[in-house]
Design brief:
The structure is a homotetramer of 494-residue chains. In chain A, helix 7 packs antiparallel against helix 8. Helix content of chain A is 51%, strand content 14%. The first copy, chain A, is globular, with a radius of gyration of 26 Å. The longest helix of chain A has 41 residues. Chains A and C meet through helix 1, helix 2, helix 4, helix 7 and helix 8 of A and helix 1, helix 2, helix 4, helix 7 and helix 8 of C.
């Protein structure tokens, strides 16, 4: 089944979700002005699966069921799937101008497939059964990884209240307590797939749990995170007319998960595999969606430059080129990471972990410069313009409209504001910084993955230093052969 | 008279200001949650004039009246005044964490003193009389320069509706029509001092007007500009507990200004002088307030690092040092520009225009990196945390407070959010970019002020190329003398 | 035939090349200390074709001859060839620490294959015959594109002396006059393949010529370009013990080229195709060799950090990670450009031109930062250390060796110096800047290749602006469908 | 006495210096092609003292002798002296395009004046007597601070051979053994003033020594450091026609220093004072000379842009403006540091240590970008052009001159090469990086000097967090006063 947007939204209405927004329980999230834009962004992932232009890209044939499924529930069975994922993400990023919230689930599914394969036995079988259901029902999965973590100097057992953990193992299932934060799109999902957010050590088995549950399971409570200017949503100054991102805190108050939905329970090596696999997949994902988001910002800046009458000014053209250059850099690095795919023995293909981290690490920097340049081109009015409601006011409206100049200018300014420091800046800037791991997380992986010895060996050899044990003897042999080439003695001894 | 904060706020209540906020006319701005924080920031400039710690810094002895006046109404009569201005701005920037709104008036007063001095005669005398009154009454002056400007490719006469201009000259005064935008603190002022925002050419005399009027003069209407998350002001998620910035659009609907308050009316050279003097003063001003604002952001990041338990992590310390380094860079450049003060024949001291532009140009870049680093240290929760109201909710509050960890963390996150992409980001980021001229404006001045010929001469000489006409013959003479030093023939011919 | 290094060097000895170095005619370049290091670097491309570790990577099966040929004479017949090229370049860049000089030929061959295919007829046939010979003899081809160009504001016919051009067409061939500059490895080649360096316009046919000739054809004179510290080559302070780069000026003094070796003669569209295809190929190539060169520099910095005792200092580790991150960025972008290969109807695969330019544009920036960080880690002694000869001096040597500390430190400092501002800085820094086109050349292509309209359309739609003609009507249809999803009326009308 | 350049060079000839260059003892350094350019640069400091244009700037009235002395031997007796120092350095930097080598001595003299003042008694008196002689004879003082230091993890007593130290205290004086590296201009000096290069701890008294001796004292041996392309000096490709920098290793083989020339011997606090004072002075000094050097590079780039016919191209103008902007940034920060002068009780004025470090820290970054942009504008020919000797060759010269285009282009390219990666790159790039302390040294000082608590206090207050002990109670009092202003109860209670 490939749901339509309408079927998707109706399925959300069928849930009995416990969701709070600014201290109020929300009855129907699908009509709440602070929630609906985020639902719309997810709905776009369903729409593209039916659109003739994108049907091929947005769906894939499942290896598990043989049916055509939404790509967001699909395993990376072919190297090509990694590249298509990125292209689909870019299309969606440009279509919605925000986060469409299904990537954590997709990357989590693939990671857990690998991890449970390594854990073996019942774990993997349960997971495959569950995944078949997800594909069949075309569900949105909230991949729930990040624990609150408290003091970064303490391990989970020292501060269990800051981690999701197993508090009881009963015949009918596990009982989970704690919280997950930064839950992208959680309130727009059908199921929560909890996973450990970091590698666990012996003695920390209770924190090494992966399991699935409906979003409205008893004991699950969600609280919507605030975004800058979120009160503008649904109003004239919203910026993005239709779409939005979403981050949620999920509280787990002794939630019972039946064993059939428990995929990891204390398997530490599999937990490490999971975390590393996810980091790779998800850091490359930013090479898809963020360039798409930046396309919108670049377009808005180009539009404003036109409205200001400076679109052909050399410094403006130069800034626009720079913005696009930086956006493409991220995309190119995502593609580069994907092009060096390797096949895990489970059958899932993985990205190059080094390049995936390189990609994400640039995502923590380059979009900030793109935003800075957009603010430069947009001009100060972006931050000093009265409400668009004022422009419609019977007394002051006409004069204000002269001040602002055109509807294009007014609305494009609001869009740039939205993406630079309005609600859209959370999916854009902050997600760029902290999504899939903060900058230092990438640097740690980079330091670990770089082959320093190989570089030092090359330097020693070229500096004319003697070989060390374990050195690149073959390279030195080549050196000698080359140094001797063409010399009289070489003719004799070659 | 040196007003107290209380006297200042009461003086605002005595006005009959026409101010709109989101389409509603505001009766008393001093109690409006969207306006009061900005009034508080201005009030701080009055408070410091009475505080024993800062009295010396915040006031000065007027050359006009002999009395002690607030520094914001003072002329830069001594070179030292330029440096003290910067230090006062830094103290206020750190005290309020936002824009305190009196600098445009101060820099405008000094610029107009110079310009009317050059225009001569009655112009200067009127201005001095007016300035004496301003000093005596310790008023807030809204320096109103920026016109909407419409299409940047067209001059004012081609699109007069986008500029403030004289539409009638009557025996009792001038009649002004049009608008001014980006009016910092206008709704918290006593008088508007309109000035031309750019050099005007022959035929554009109607746009070359400088004049003063009460903020509640008939025909003056103000509309408050929106800021990101401005609806949070006064609530638990405001970020900055007390202070705020303000930008206003002012509409002038045939406002009559008596001749006694008209300081320039078509004097084109004086208008150019005014614009250039103001650019110098105001671009250096950013070397005062912005480092002060950044102090707050750096402090908030350091506080959060402590709360996260990573304050001693080397990468965090490194980022904090970088942030402070960049903040001090701006301050150092402001001081550098001020240290090369030159005395205008009117008696006012001017900053070095080249270095003032260098200072401001960095302000369009470096604070963006400081903000980026603050967001890095702050962590993703800054953008995903529910409302502080949720933390007080009887049902979900306790669990959420565990998630967030501490009141320090929650409130410091809101403060970073405020300055990075909340209401405070307008004084911080956008003001950095566009206040006192957008980046390209500085580059144009830089290109004009750099002595290219001198650099090319030096290069030619050192490259061994022959002298050209108008060249540095003296430097070449030194070269020859040095080349010959210590040589036998040199002994003979020296 | 796959030549060995020895066979290659002997084949160079068999030429009667006219080569000047510092005003002296060189009899045997293969033993000249300023030339031999560059020959060694080319010899490495031959050595790898025989090394069991790299044989697969360094050779390919020719589509033209069916034989195994050196990859540097191979056509990109499969998408995979583009990726393998990059990987081979990286291995060679790390092995030699410099430019190995065969890439311009390889990229030129592929470009000319495409261009002559488009020109059609005899042009392509001649070229294929010639290429078969090149593959069979495993020759080094000097791809000669860049004309001196003189004043950049003038076209070739205004200053023909600054361009290579046809001065006569005779029955037995063309006569060429002029010069080519920046000729990488020319003195180490077997043939020169001249190609136009830019698109030509009607009336400029005499400058649109592609043709091949032996490097020792009558009328061909080469003059070696200087490199920083080139006089150190072959001595104790050389830095790179074995390898070097090479740039040559070639003077063409009425060189006759038989028609069989003329591949383009005034075919303007093919000339444009050639230039654009080459730019794509060659700009991606920098994603191969430069990361390899940087590996050496990074290795040298890591080695020095060890010697200084600061390898574990957090700021040093951070700098090393940054250096590697930037090197991998370039490599990842080269791979990204290659992963979007498209097949030209001639059968040759082309890289994505947008990403190839993004890749090269970063090459004009990032290696500079890597070098800066290397200089930071290396320490000032890199630039103040006496000659390594001094360290062997009987009187001062012992004390100096104590000062320097170790042979590792001394030699690694010389290597860093070599790559940062010695002879190796020309292949590294300057080649990064200007090779395959200076930065502005990439910006021009980027501006042309970016789909601005698509970005503006997305911005308009999301800003809530009405559709324009030619707009993305389908995207707007999706928007409407999504906005209506789940609503009562939607149920009715869907 | 104010020596002339001729008198200065002759005074050098009168020494019996032991100097090695590339393993050879040099008889008369003043005619050695590798040494003379550096002597010329020092001679410029003498020439300016006589030039009517700069006499005032280049000299000062001594507080010690009452006579007019060269500024390089002068104490910073007035705040203005700090600014004048910077301006003189900039003039010299532009005049010579390189390091003029007298600043370490000048900054060392001032630091030691302060340090010996604190040490008190005979130490200071001896130093003042010595300084009077230096001023009277107008000598060049080599300030010798940097020890080889060996492994950075070990203190001096663990590896004494890597530090200059007292090995004997005799009735007639101290005996010194060891070495100093990075000795700027040592071979062009009259006296060596050794000083400790870092703060010493109890037990390290033998390393805390400051003393003066003639450069030709028995036991002193100098070895010239290599510079890139140093063999070009004196030839056609030198780049800088007249001037050069110099770095020397000095070996001290049991050098006897009479007590009258010993200024510190184990006074640890004074040693710390010395090191910190010197760091401040010398880090600000880079705000003088380096902008002057960069002026030359910028001039050369502008000249080349003219020759290429692209001087008016917008991207070229933009790059030139950026280069100048960065150069002025450094100068502005040096001025800023100098404008906050404080008077030490000895009477010497000190720069602001925080801003001095900010200044120098930018010097380790910004000039690298200026060089990068210069290489961009210069074009690849800078690195591929044959020797200027080739251009004069009877056979190939004429054609090569056509290729190169003009003498302006050829020579300006060599000048850019000289400053970017020739001999001049050592004074420029490497000195920028490591002179007066490597980047990390500045970061350590910055971290120590920043008032973190003050920033955190401001953040806590504005975030609405309660006061802590030791907090800014006064600021909170102001907050309350401001919050209450204009409120009815305020009227009652004020």
């Amino acid at each position: 089944m490939l749901r339509t947007p309408d079927q998707y939204v109706r399925s959300l209405q069928a849930r009995s979700l416990v969701l709070y927004v600014d201290g109020e329980r929300v009855a129907d999230p699908t009509v709440h002005p602070r929630v609906r834009p985020a639902i719309n962004a997810v709905a776009a992932t369903y729409a593209l699966a039916h659109d003739p232009r994108t049907r091929e890209l947005a769906t894939a044939q499942s290896e598990l069921t043989g049916a055509r499924v939404n790509r967001f529930t699909h395993l990376f069975a072919q190297p090509e799937d990694l590249r298509r994922k990125l292209e689909l993400q870019r299309v969606l990023g440009r279509l919605t101008g925000t986060c469409f919230q299904r990537c954590v689930g997709m990357d989590g599914i693939n990671s857990l497939f690998i991890a449970t394969f390594e854990a073996g036995g019942e774990h993997h079988e349960r997971f495959v059964r569950w995944l078949r259901q997800v594909q069949r029902d075309d569900e949105v999965i909230d991949g729930a990884m990040t624990d609150p973590k408290g003091n970064r100097n303490q391990r989970p057992p020292q501060q269990p209240e800051h981690y999701l953990r197993v508090v009881e193992r009963r015949p009918d299932g596990l009982v989970l307590r704690g919280a997950k934060i930064h839950q992208t799109g959680a309130a727009n999902s059908h199921q929560i797939l909890v996973m450990p957010g970091m590698a666990m050590r012996p003695g920390e088995e209770d924190f090494a749990v992966a399991a699935a549950m409906p979003v409205d399971a008893p004991g699950v409570t969600m609280v919507l995170g605030r975004q800058p200017s979120d009160e503008r949503k649904g109003g004239p100054d919203a910026g993005n007319a239709l779409y939005g991102g979403q981050e949620v805190v999920i509280l787990f108050d002794d939630v019972l998960v039946p064993w059939e939905r428990v995929f990891l329970d204390g398997q530490l090596p599999a937990c490490t595999t999971l975390v590393e696999a996810f980091a790779g997949f998800h850091r490359a994902s930013y090479g898809g969606c963020k360039p798409g988001n930046l396309d919108v910002l670049i377009g808005a800046a180009a539009l404003l430059a036109d409205e200001h009458g400076v679109r052909r000014a050399s410094h403006v053209r130069d800034k626009l080129v720079e913005m696009a250059h930086l956006g493409e850099t991220i995309h190119g690095l995502g593609l580069g990471a994907s092009s060096k795919a390797t096949r895990h023995e489970s059958g899932v293909h993985q990205v190059d972990p080094l390049l995936a981290n390189v990609c994400k690490h640039h995502v923590t920097r380059l979009p900030y410069e793109v935003v800075r340049l957009a603010e430069d081109i947009a001009g100060g009015l972006m931050a000093t313009m009265p409400s668009l409601a004022d422009l419609e006011h019977p007394e002051i409206g006409p004069a204000l409209r002269t001040v602002v100049g055109s509807d294009e200018r007014a609305r494009a300014l609001r869009l740039v504001e939205y993406m630079s420091y309005g609600a859209g800046s959370v999916p854009l800037r902050i997600e760029c910084m902290h999504g899939a791991g903060s900058p230092q997380a990438q640097r740690i992986v980079l330091e670990r993955r770089i082959d320093w010895a190989r570089r030092v060996d090359a330097a020693r050899r070229l500096a004319g230093l003697p070989a060390r044990e374990g050195d690149d003897a073959d390279d030195r042999r080549l050196d000698h052969q080359i140094a001797a080439a063409g010399q009289p003695e070489a003719a004799a001894t070659k």
